[in-house]
Amino acid sequence: MNTELLHANFGWLHAPPFPPACCHCLIIRSEAGLMLVDTGIGMQDIKAPEERVGSEAMQAAGFQFIESVTALAQIQQLGYSTADVTDIILTHGDPDHVGGLADFPDARVHLSSEEKQQLETADPRYRSTQFSHRPHWVTYDINDADWFGMPSRCVDTAVNIDVRLIPLPGHTLGHCGVAVQTEDRWFLHVGDAYYLRRELTDPQHPIGELAAFRATDNAQRLDSLARLRTCITQHSDAFQYCGYHDTSELPASVPSFEEVL
């Protein structure tokens, strides 16, 4: 079965004086349907931002509510409907990663068991209204395969390719990267394991202060980042990778913040 991995930006965050940050997601297209890695800011967020995102998060992160950038709008532009999205794999449950879930109510939503457990607590970083449509959760708690020296959890999707959750806790307790096997090599979406790619080569980068502030467990976050750094160094020819917020990692074909305003 032929598959194609597409890069997309499903949302913008801009809280001046900081530069804009993207919501870099993946679309995996196959004959069986579409699979998404994270969903960005969704249509329902745009309709009810304070209820679904909250004024504090909106101001702190600078949520931008732009319909044309949503996953739903971009999926439709590709000629698909919501029903064509069979699976969504989450790195974690922060509001800027899960806003589009409600736009694809029939999709199975895959995530770590640790993250799902946190979503069910009173942790203020999560917004229960973003899950009020009752997603079809599929959780994973067993590290059942090795992935370039890192533990991984095999994900069962409708798309017949190898997909793994790579535990990278710290940003949240159940935070994971998502590894997808393409025709020529693997691709790893690291989620928020780093905010900027430069963190891999500059452990003292100032963005680390924000990352530490946003981490549920900063010691775990730093350990995950160190393990990720080692894996990339040792296996640089075996896979490509990206994070969620670094605009420099977006393909040139993806419209910039200024272009969509």
Q: What is the subunit organization of this protein?
A: single chain
Number of separate strands: 13
Fraction of residues in helix: 10-25%
What is the typical, i.e. mean, pLDDT? 96
Number of helices: 9
Describe the protein:
This protein is of the alpha/beta class and 261 residues long. The chain is built from nine helices and 13 strands. The strands form two sheets. It has a seven-stranded mixed sheet. A hairpin with a 2-residue loop joins strand 2 (21-30) and strand 3. The longest helix is centred in the last third of the chain and has 17 residues, at 218-234. The radius of gyration is 17 Å and the shape is globular. The N and C termini lie far apart (38 Å). The relative contact order is 0.16. The model has no long low-confidence stretch (mean pLDDT 96).
Main traits of this protein?
about 260 residues; alpha/beta; globular; 13 strands
Describe the structure in brief.
The chain has 261 residues and is α/β, with parallel strands linked by helices.
Question: What is the fold's blueprint, element by element?
Answer:
Blueprint: E1 3-13, E2 21-30, E3 33-37, H1 43-47, H2 49-52, H3 55-61, E4 63-64, H4 71-77, E5 85-89, H5 95-98, E6 108-112, H6 113-119, E7 136-140, E8 145-147, E9 150-154, E10 163-167, E11 176-181, E12 186-189, H7 207-214, H8 218-234, E13 239-242, H9 257-260
Parallel strand pairs: 3-5, 5-6, 6-7, 12-13
Antiparallel strand pairs: 1-2, 1-4, 2-3, 8-9, 9-10, 10-11, 11-12
